[in-house]
Amino acid sequence: MDFVSLVIGLASGAAGGNVAGKVMNSGMGTLGRSITGIVGGTGLAAVTQMLGIGGVADPTAGGSIDIMSILSGLVSGGVGGGILTAILGKVMGK
Asked: What DSSP string describes 15-67?
């Protein structure tokens, strides 16, 4: 996972976690939702990149930014962060 994909996974995971936590009215707080979202978002972004589902930066492209890699990181990070936060929000809510 390259640096740009990592940063995108972190940021979109935190955003996805906060959105899911707000929608579910979880009692985790902003910091808890952000951390959970970061873990879930980065994890899913890494898994999709390893499986070849998302766009992967081409090392021979001269350092250009691949838009599919960015979009893939945004979507998988947001979804992963949201899912993990939703799961933990339900478990902690009981």
From this structure: HHHHHHHHHHT-TTHHHHHHHHHHHHHHHHHHHHHHHT-S----GGGSSPPPH
Sign of the dihedral defined by the CA atoms of residues 45, 50, 51, 56, in that order:
positive
CB atoms near residue 35 (< 10 Å): 17
Nearest to residue 39, comparing CAs of 87, 3, 4, 72? 87
Task: Tell me what pLDDT residue 27 has.
Answer: 80
With a CB cutoff of 8 Å and minimum separation 6, the contacts of 7 are: none
Q: What is the mean pLDDT for each group of 10 consecutive residues in the chain (94 residues)?
A: 76 92 86 92 82 61 67 86 90 74
Residue 54: closest CA among 77, 37, 38, 85: 77
